C-alpha cells in the first residue's frame, strides 16, 4: 500500500484506537499516530527498523533513504538489544528528545510524552491567517518556545532535530512541499492533539526525501535567525 495515490483505509485493522496505560508511546506525534492506527504495533513495543521504515513510507510518503535514516537513528540513539525500539525510549532526554518542543513540556516537568494542550493551542495561534501554519509560522513558534533557553537556543544538533520535526510536520500536510503551503489548523489539531490521522487522510502525493528536508531545514533556520534579530 502506498500513500502516493490511494486513500489510506483507516477502518478495520487501521481504525484509531486510544492507547491503553500499558502501551508505549513517545514524544513523536507521527509515530504515536502510526501506533494508534495499527501501522506500527499498537502496544508500541519491540519495533524493528523495517516496521518503522514501512510505516513512515506507507502513511507519510517519506522516501526510503530518509525513512531509513530516521528509523535506524532512532533505534541506535534510543533503542534496545537486538535493534528494537519501545516508543517511550524516544523520550530519553538529550538523545533526540530536547527542550522547547512545540507541544510537549520540557524534561524538567517529568513528562515529555503527554501532549500539552495549552502548548498546542499556542502553536495554532501562531498561524498568521488563522487557517494554517506556514513554515514561517513554525519558525515563529520555534522562536517563542526557545525564549527561556540559555542563549534562547538549543545546541546545534538538537536545533537541527527541532527544525527537522517542524519541516516534516509542515511537509506531510503540504503535499510533500518543505517550504511552501500551509498545514491546515483543523488537521494539525487532530494529528498533534489526538495523535490520530485526520478524517479522509490522503498521504502526500510527492515523496518527501533528504533533499526536501535539507532545503526545509535551511529555510526555517534562516527564518528563525531573522525573527531573532528583529526581536533584539
Ligand atoms: C523513525 C522515525 C522517527 C523518529 C525516531 C522520531 C523521533 C522523534 C523524537 C524523539 C521526537 C521528540 C523531540 C522533542 O523533544 O520534541 C520527535 C518529535 C517530533 N516528530 Fe518525530 N520521529 C520520527 C519520524 C517522524 C515523522 C515521519 C514525522 C512527521 C511526519 C515526525 C514529526 C515530529 C514532530 C512534529 C515532532 C515535534 C513534537 C513537538 O515539538 O512537541 N517524526 N520525533
CATH architectural grouping: Orthogonal Bundle
Contiguous uncertain segments of 5+ residues: 1-5
Q: Assign an overall shape.
A: globular
With helices defined by DSSP (H or I, 4 residues minimum), what is the helix count? 8
Tell me the CATH superfamily: Chloroperoxidase-like
Structural class: mainly alpha
Question: What's the CATH class label?
Answer: Mainly Alpha
Instruction: Please report which band the strand proportion falls in: under 5%, 5-15%, 15-25%, 25-35%, 35-45% or over 45%.
Output: under 5%
* Average pLDDT taken over every residue: 95
Q: Say how many strands there are.
A: 2
Distance between the termini: 49 Å
Protein name: Heme haloperoxidase family profile domain-containing protein
Pfam family, one: Peroxidase_2
GO molecular function: metal ion binding; peroxidase activity
Family: Belongs to the chloroperoxidase family.
